[in-house]
Each structure stands twice: as structure tokens, then as C-alpha cells.
Amino acid sequence: MSFGSALGLTLRFCAMALAVPFLITLFVHYLAPSEKPPARGIGLLATFLGAIFSGAATWGIWLGWMYLVGEAPTSIHTLQILGCLLMSVLASVSLGSWSKWRGTGPFVAALGFVFGFALVAGTWEMHGNPDDFAGLGVFLYILGATPTALIVATILALVRHAAHSATETNE
To answer: What is the mean pLDDT of residues 59-84?
Structure first.
């Protein structure tokens, strides 16, 4: 399978699985009662692009090196899984915290991370293994990682809301 067709197929998988949570996040952002953002922080687009880069970098750091050194990726070690998990939580929490939008920033960061990781992993897998079930693996990763990332984002949004409410009460 050519690189272009593998990328196109991966984009379709990502779009199918992430479209509904992402549209719900944008719907809440634009139609919910307006929340006044603080003067500092990054916007939603910067949060999303940073999260995509973080997801792609996580795959490259923890899983992609096997392809670059020529080692057959027949098995993934526990340390690699834990590294990916730790980096996903750190990237989503840090980018969600830096976002100026308390309610939707963490969700955009979480979904962007899942998208970036799946995009690179899926494209690489489908390009290298056209007859394999790589597409199914990427789709299953997205279906498993999205709810987990949204749980982390919900906890972060609730913590940020509680911290903001406490500061407003003290003022």
C-alpha cells in the first residue's frame, strides 16, 4: 500500500471514531453559556495542534524507534506501554491546563493527542503491512483510548472549574 493511500485510510478511521466526541466538544464550546477566558493561555487551535504533535512524538519516541533501527516489532514491551500512557496523560493534562478555555481546552487536548498518535501509528502500520489487520488495530486503539482520554479531560476540567470557583469566592 502506498504511503498516500495509507495516510488517507488512517485519516478516515480517525475521522469516523473522533468526529462525534470532537463535535460535541465544539458544540459545548460555542453554544454553552459563555465563559470568559483568562488573559493568558493558548487558544483551542494551538491546544489541538500541540496535542497532535505530542501524540505523534509519543508514538515516535516509544514505538517508532523499532522501525528505524530495523528491529521487527513483533512484540511491544511493558515499558513502552507505560511510557506511552504516562506521556499521554502528561501531554493532555499540561496542554489542557495551558489552554485558556477551562471547560473545553482539556477535551480538545485529549482528542488531539489520540488523533496524533493514531494518525502516525496507523499510517506507518498500514503502509508497512497492507495485508495485515493494522487498520482494525488503529480503530480499536481509538475506540479504547478516546474514552480514557475523555475521562482524564473531565477530571482536569472539573479541577480547573473548582479552582476557578474557589478564587472567585475568595475575591
So the answer is: 77
